[in-house]
Amino acid sequence: MNSLIIVAHGSKKKSSNDEVVQIVNQIKKENTLYKNIEVSFLEFESPNIEQSVQKCIELKSQKIYIYPYFLNSGKHVTFDIPNMVKELKEKHQTTSFVLLPHFGQSKNVTDIILSDITLNQ
User: Fold this and answer.
1) Which of 5, 45, 85, 99 could form a disulfide with 10, with the two C-beta atoms 3.0–4.6 Å apart?
2) Does residue 66 contact residue 7 with C-beta atoms inside 8 Å?
3) Residue 60 CB burial class (10 angstroms; 0-12, 13-18, ≥19)
4) Residue 89 neighbours by CB under 8 Å, 6+ apart
5) 3-state secondary structure of 73
6) Could you list the residue range(s) of the whole structural domain that residue 101 is in?
7) pLDDT values of the chain reduced to their tens digit, one per residue, 121 residues
C-alpha cells in the first residue's frame, strides 16, 4: 500500500492549521492514487512527521510519499524535511520513502494564480 503525507509548516493559530486539514480532507475525497493520506506539521501542531509515518506503517504502508506543502524552497524544504526523510529511511528500513517536490515547484502554481486574478476582475 502507498501512503501520502502532506507536510505543512504549522502555526500557533488554530484556524491556519485547520485550513491545512481542510485541504488535506478535500484531497482525500478526490484522491485516486493513495490508499492513505495523512497531514503533518513541522511546528506548533500535531501530528508531526514521525507520528504520521507511524500511522502509515501501522496501516501496512510499504511506500510513503512526503509532499512538502510549502510555497518557497526555504530552510524547511531544502534542509529540514530532506534530513527528516533521511532519518526515517534509516529508522524504518523496510519502508520506502519518496520526497516529492514542494508545492511551489508545481507547474500549476502559475495557472492557479492567473485563474484567481482573472476570476476576480
Assistant:
1) 45
2) yes
3) exposed
4) 97
5) coil
6) 2-119
7) 999 999 999 999 999 999 999 999 999 999 999 999 999 999 999 999 999 999 999 999 999 999 999 999 999 999 999 999 999 999 999 999 999 999 999 999 999 999 989 866 6
Count of structural domains within the chain: 1
Strands 63-68 vs 96-99: parallel, antiparallel or unpaired: parallel
Q: What's the CA gap between 47 and 51, in Å, rounded?
A: 6
| pTM listed for this prediction | 0.93
Domain with 102 in it: what CATH number?
3.40.50.1400
CA distance 90 to 75: 22
Radius of gyration of the chain from its Cα atoms, rounded to whole angstroms: 15
What's the one-letter identity of residue 57? I
- Catalytic machinery residues: 9
Q: Which residues contact 98 (CB under 8 A, 6 or more apart)?
A: 63, 64, 65, 66
- As a whole number of angstroms, the distance between CA 75 and CA 83 comes to 11
